[in-house]
Sel1 repeat family protein
Amino acid sequence: MDGSNELDAPALRRLAELVHRGTGDEDGDAELAQRLVRLADTGEAHQLDLNTLLRLPDLVYRGADDEVGDPDLAERPLRLAAATGDVRAVESLGSFLLWAQDDGEAARPWLLRGAELGDGNAMANLGDMSDFEEDEEQAELWYARAVEAGNERAGAELAALRELRERRES
């Protein structure tokens, strides 16, 4: 990132441009783009609600190979949303940092906070990180917690991890 987590006027205008055009399988949203331009003109980015902040990254970034995507710009609204302490926002920022930015070190504190708040996706992502780090015991603990929190993907990961261990032990 360029060091700024702010949604200043240039960032809002760039967001508006990307939102209007659309990316990946998302169609453009002219109404939201116009709203972003108005906020840029008035200097009132603080008027953006949490749901809009959480929606913006999907509208401007659709994966590492997306030519239109701008991961650094997409991160800004997530950081603003996460600063509110909302569990969806905290988990979304952690997941974005882990998967889109490939920055596990930056993702970990956000995912831990999400897990503390009871978010099953954050727990499953911590399980993934532990699995990638070849810490099977920790991965199993995180996946089990994620399952308890209702995360279905973690159940499949936990079963695969246990099956792999059983094969090695037999």
Notes: The chain has two domains: 1-84, 86-170. The mean pLDDT is 90.
